[in-house]
Fold this sequence. Notes:
The protein is of the alpha+beta class. The chain has two domains: 140 residues, no CATH class; 107 residues, no CATH class. Helices cover 51% and strands 8% of the residues. The chain has eleven helices and five strands. A five-stranded antiparallel sheet has the order 4-3-2-1-5. Helix 2 packs across helix 4 and helix 7 packs across helix 8.
Amino acid sequence: MDKSTRKSKKSTSAASTDSTSPANSANKDISQQENPALATITVTAVEIPELTEEEQSDRLHLERKVEKAVFEAGKALMELRDRRLYRSTHSTFEEYCKDRFGFERRHPYRLIEASAVFDNLIKMCPNWTQNEDDPDTVHSGQRQILPTAEGQVRPMTKLQPQEQQEAWLRAVEVAGGKVPTGRIVKDVVQRIMERTQVPNTYQIGEVCQIITKDNPELRGKGGCWGIVNHVGEFSCTVKTWDGEYTVGLQHLKSYNYLPAECQQMQVICDRISRVYSDSLEETVKSLLQLLGRVNRPYLTAVEEKLLKLLELEYGRIP
């Protein structure tokens, strides 16, 4: 009995020592450590190298590509429109843009207008160049702030080129030297327009020439004359040979005709309008359009005979 008891005690003692040895060792290590809240953590600093001259040049080159992307689209659309490269598949530029690019009617024109403003803003940035691969001009110590989206330049399409540059510089200043939002640009443009507001002096019945000035909504009307039949605060409604158009004051120029001459032009306008129709032959429409561009308050004897002939032919004599 005594030997059996002694063996059991030895076995228990050995088992107890073996099972607690690793845990006790770990606990002992933890207990001997300092308070974790007071422990010191060593962080190795990683040095970020400065950009090399080549990398700075690459960065500017790529940034300019981003800035110009949307405005290059506007230039491409302008060429597609002006050269009528859509004519093999679509009858109008608007239909082509909707089917090919998913653009709504006004969007391609906004991009075209924006590209013209962007080109104007580039003129005041001496560090820009058309040849972006030229290292002498791509690298610059001063970054030029230019628009990156169509919405940032849309408000400036209402201004003259010099005013556009002024508005953009002011908007960049308001934005703290960064690319301004469309809202900031709009506010700046509004203040410039209020400052330069010119009263509308046109009168009903006055004969004016339409000046397009890259306004896509007036495409095909450059040089045409019209009769003012409504005077607004910033625009006039004028009647031409094929309809009525609301035209901003900056797109009108008075012929300064005498009252009797204005009345005579009103009669001519009414006569052309009664004959003109989209269903007419192209040669007839072209003739009427030319009459709608004469820069004198009368028709020559030949022009008068041609117009009378068309009135007889199409039964449009009043």
